[in-house]
Each structure stands twice: as structure tokens, then as C-alpha cells.
């Protein structure tokens, strides 16, 4: 039986609840309704009193989670859309992120952010906020690109004593499937070589990994071998794996769905340019969404974000340089 990316997230939460009585889920409509995307479907019935509906106040939700964590609980907070997490920004970056460094008291909360765009979602339900949270010390930022990682990394997030921002991509919820969930996982902060190659490196994360893999397949028919690196974790960032890949290929293209100013792609390029300049045969490049709010219209949305077509064009330009 196949398991979707969304079902893997639900299964991970069920296992976390079953394995640890300190775990509970808190969020808007997560109870009998099963969550905005049904990521908590049937969990309230299976675990009475531990899958709790929250008021429509992300700020209050995060404050309650931090208080619970201080008292020894391990809350999983579902924010309906990543965009709305900014309502709780103060709680996340000033309280949760800094708590251990101020008090030596851990803050083991997991904040699930359904992130990224889908056709017709528009500017308030499509944003990718991983770089904003990665900016702040004290937060771990995860961005799984596969069904297997969605499951294993969410379990890791709950087990970690630090607050974790778990960026799960809405477009992948039903587009990815696997036959079996993993029993072992790569460590937190370790990137994955999704496809080996020798001619150039494409570093990507979340849904962009699959666009990059499609490009690698296309360019392979032209005799070009592209290595695709899936970051998996935005913070900590696995610079060693990135550098090793660039050392093999001599060229770097970093792709992200978020806005272009600053961000994960900028950080990757900056690290490679400053720490591995001698490894490069051409200037490192990056590709992001357009520097505008995310459009509603499906055709505009398709032109706004990186796609296999635009990534392939950028890759060919880099190969010619």
C-alpha cells in the first residue's frame, strides 16, 4: 500500500503520541475536524485529550506551547499555513529560540508549517519562510523533500530538545508516495546526494528537489551529468556535503522557491564563494521565485516560481560559462 507525504506526517505524529506521553498536538481545527489538510485525521479519537483545538490566535498558541515545554511537555503545533506563523513571530524568535540561552531550560516544541505554493493559493497561503526562521540562533529548521524524510524528520523534530520549525511543502502532500516508511534516518543537519553527477551541482530543498531531479534527467540525455544535493535541513546547513559536491563538479546552481532577496540560496552561494572559491570553474548562480508577492492565477504562479524549465535554462547557461 502506498503512503503519501501527508500520510507520512500523520503517521509520524501518531507514533510520537503513542511513544511519548509528553507529546500533544495543538492547533486550529486539529481535533475532530482533523486539521486544515487532514494531517491529524482521527488522531483526536485515537488519543483523547491530546489533540487539542486552539483559538484563532497563533500568538496564543505559541505562548501556550512554550509554557508547556518549560513544564516538560513536547508540543507539536500545527499552523494552518506557514504565512500565518508571522502572527506568532515574537513568541518564536524572542521567546522559544532564546529560552535555553537565557535560562538553561530546554524548549522542545515542533512547529509544523505547511509552506510553499500551490496553484491558486495566492500571496497569503503560499510563502516559504524557512530563511526568516533560519536567521535566528536557537531554532532548527527542517524542510523534507521526500515521504521518507517527512516521516523520519518529524519524529526527530519531536525528540530534539530545541525548538524546530518543520517546513512541509503543501504541493508534495499528495504528489509524492512511497511503499514503506523508514526505520532509520539520516542525522539532523545532514544533506543527501539525491543524484550523483560530475558536471555541475544543483543544490535544492523541499519541492525544488524534484524540479532539479527532472532537470538532471533531461540534461542526462544531452550527455551532462548533474549532481543534485537535497539540503533536508536548512539550519544547521550541511556545508561539507555542498563543498564536496562542488569539488567534484566545479559548478554550482542553488535553487529555492522562496523570494530572492537574501535567503537560503544566497547563504549557500556565499559560503561556497567564501570558503570554496578555488573549487569553482564558474561563478556560482542561484535561482528563486520572482521578487513579488505570490500571484493567484495559475499561469502567473507557474511563471513566478522556479520550474524544471527555468532551472534547465539556468543550468545550461552555467554550463556554457
From TrEMBL:
SMART domains: Transket_pyr. It comes from Pedosphaera parvula (strain Ellin514). This is Transketolase central region. SUPFAM superfamilies: Thiamin diphosphate-binding fold (THDP-binding), TK C-terminal domain-like. InterPro entries: THDP-binding, Transketo_C/PFOR_II, Transketolase-like_Pyr-bd, Transketolase_C. Its cofactor is thiamine diphosphate. One of its GO terms (molecular function) is oxidoreductase activity. Pfam families: Transket_pyr (PF02779), Transketolase_C (PF02780). Residues 3-175 form the Transketolase-like pyrimidine-binding domain. Keywords: Oxidoreductase, Thiamine pyrophosphate.
Amino acid at each position: 500500500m502506498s503512503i503519501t507525504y501527508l500520510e507520512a506526517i500523520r503517521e509520524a505524529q501518531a507514533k510520537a503520541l503513542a511513544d511519548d506521553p509528553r507529546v500533544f498536538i495543538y492547533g486550529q481545527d486539529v481535533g475532530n475536524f482533523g486539521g486544515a489538510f487532514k494531517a491529524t485525521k482521527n488522531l483526536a479519537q485515537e488519543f483523547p485529550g491530546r489533540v487539542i483545538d486552539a483559538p484563532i490566535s497563533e500568538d496564543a498558541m505559541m505562548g501556550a506551547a512554550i509554557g508547556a515545554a518549560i513544564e516538560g511537555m513536547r508540543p507539536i503545533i500545527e499552523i494552518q499555513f506557514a504565512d500565518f506563523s508571522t502572527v506568532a513571530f515574537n513568541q518564536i524568535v524572542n521567546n522559544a529560540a532564546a529560552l535555553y540561552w537565557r535560562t538553561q531550560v530546554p524548549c522542545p516544541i515542533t512547529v509544523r508549517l505547511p509552506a510553499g505554493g500551490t496553484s491558486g493559493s495566492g500571496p497569503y497561503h503560499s510563502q516559504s519562510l524557512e530563511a526568516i526562521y533560519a536567521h535566528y540562533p536557537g531554532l532548527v529548521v527542517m524542510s523534507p523533500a521526500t515521504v521518507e524524510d517527512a516521516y523520519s524528520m518529524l519524529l526527530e523534530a519531536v525528540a530534539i530538545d530545541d525548538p524546530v520549525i518543520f517546513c512541509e511543502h503543501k504541493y508534495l502532500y499528495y504528489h509524492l508516495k512511497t511503499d514503506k516508511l523508514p526505520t532509520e534516518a539520516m542525522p539532523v543537519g545532514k544533506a543527501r546526494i539525491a543524484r550523483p553527477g560530475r558536471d555541475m551541482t544543483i543544490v535544492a530543498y523541499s519541492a525544488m528537489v524534484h524540479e532539479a531531479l527532472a532537470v538532471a534527467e533531461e540534461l542526462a540525455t544531452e550527455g551532462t551529468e548533474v549532481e543534485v544535493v537535497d539540503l533536508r535541513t536548512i539550519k544547521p546547513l550541511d556545508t561539507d556535503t555542498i563543498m564536496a559536491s562542488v569539488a567534484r563538479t566545479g559548478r554550482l546552481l542553488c535553487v529555492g522557491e522562496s523570494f530572492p532577496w537574501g535567503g537560503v540560496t544566497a547563504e549557500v552561494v556565499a559560503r561556497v564563494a567564501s570558503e570554496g572559491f578555488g573549487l569553482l570553474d564558474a561563478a556560482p548562480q542561484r535561482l528563486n521565485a520572482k521578487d513579488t508577492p505570490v500571484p493567484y492565477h495559475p499561469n502567473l504562479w507557474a511563471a513566478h516560481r522556479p520550474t524544471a524549465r527555468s532551472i534547465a535554462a539556468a543550468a545550461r547557461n552555467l554550463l556554457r560559462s
